[in-house]
Amino acid sequence: MRTQAEVSRPVLRRIRTFVDTAVVASPARFATVIFTSLVLVLTAVLALPIATVERSATPLADALFTAVSTICVTGLSVVDMATHWSTFGTVAILIGLQVGGIGVLTLASMLGLIVSRRLGLRAKLMAASDTNLQRIHAGPVSESQTVKLGDIGGLLSTVAISVLAIELAVTVLITPRLMLAGFDPWAATWQGFYYASSAFTNTGFMPNPEGLEPFETDPWMLGSISIAVILGSLGFPVIFALARLSRGEGRLSVHVKLTLVTTTILFVLGAIAIYALEWANPATIGAQDPAARPMTAGFLSIMTRSGGFSNVDINEMHGSTLLIMDMLMFVGGGSASTAGGIKVTTLAVLFLAALAEARGDENMQAFNRRLPSDVLRLSVSVVLWGATIVAVATIALLVVTDEPMDRVLFDVISAFATCGLSTGVTAEVPDAGKYILAATMWAGRVGTVTLAAALAASQRRQLYTLPEERPIVG
């Protein structure tokens, strides 16, 4: 008779063949399926009675919303994250945000690299298909992409080392401050790691009910969180490039330079705008000491990168400030990062295209390099898809709630950009609103271009060129 191992071997072979075929045929679609499956698994875990302090089952809408917010590393919540979940539920959420921040397939490839000490083409395709490593389009892998297949092994090592090192370093920075605030060593260490993980993955969940209120003007606490958020929002390719440069290897690519320059410009302009608009608002920055106001404005500007932490009441901000933060959140952080949004390089490419058109240049240029035209098409697609998702979600949420437009738009953009800042609308929406925001978070995290590629039935090859005719534009 055949043994159990002999019987199961053909089944495992067929499963492996199916996975190989799915990865090669459509890496984006395969990544989307795995990503969604993980959301459903976490939803089932959080719905268990053991996941709550009261040992009662969490309603499906709340469990699903929390799971999506966790895996999408958004930070929006419909329950009190510090008091609703038990230790079991909190650990599940911490694991979920780590997996979501690093990337489902990136994590799988890292485990394979550790076990086998090598990466095959299949694993490289899986890693390259992850939305955290690069945005995928329906075309074949190009040598001009930021992260080449040959670099995936080194990139994954950088991911593992950077995540471990940064989160442990930020934990070491935060823990003593929490102990000085009155927490015992174990509670301080646990909450310090929670803050560090939530900050680096740009989630924004907080382990204590009062949040950052006790530290609203504390430069050490706010500075430590800001550093973690910035590093997480720059993107692993940028960290990879900076790590190589520190060893005297390679040079900074156009992608890295655009990410660093655009991020710096948005941070400075955002901080100035928030400070100018809120400095006299007694419900927000105006209530703070004059010396602390610039720090708060800078902290909030950094959090719009996708951090999600806040040391003031967002709902008390002026409508003009909310609009500025809407724009900053919509842009988000760097490509292939734990941040969301359309990404800073997308905005940079659009600006460079407008600048080239104004100058009459035929090609876009940056740092003495010519940018290909397909990058512009991809950037336009990302913006249009993102704007469409935000518009549809905003209209749908206005239908099911009685909240004003500016507050609804703010929370929708925060969901799409996986930011986590909220005016309070999210906590008050009915179940229908929770599903709308959950879908918005999912679409924002999977990525507009990746989503389009995943839904495409097959790649089209056009073997002919149509006659050219120029429409009137503008």
Short description:
This protein has 474 residues and is mostly helical.
Question: How does this model look, in words?
Answer:
- With 474 residues, the chain is mostly helical.
- Helix content is 64%, strand content 1%.
- Strands 1-2 form a two-stranded antiparallel ribbon.
- The longest helix is centred in the middle third of the chain and has 29 residues, at 152-180.
- It is globular and about 70 Å long.
What does the main sheet amount to?
Answer: 2 strands, antiparallel
Helix-strand topology string: HHHHHHHHHHHHHHEEHHHHH
Output the strand order for the largest sheet: 1-2
User: What's the count of strands?
Assistant: 2
Backbone structural class? mainly alpha
Low-confidence stretches: 131-146
Please give the radius of gyration in angstroms.
23 Å
What is the residue-averaged pLDDT?
A: 83
The assembly state of the depicted protein chains is: single chain
C-alpha end-to-end distance: 77 Å
The shape is globular
Topology:
Layout: H1 4-25, H2 27-46, H3 60-71, H4 87-102, H5 104-116, H6 121-129, H7 152-180, H8 185-200, H9 219-234, H10 236-246, H11 254-278, H12 293-307, H13 319-331, H14 344-359, E1 364-366, E2 369-371, H15 373-400, H16 405-416, H17 425-428, H18 431-446, H19 448-455
Antiparallel strand pairs: 1-2
Keywords:
mainly alpha; two-stranded antiparallel sheet; globular
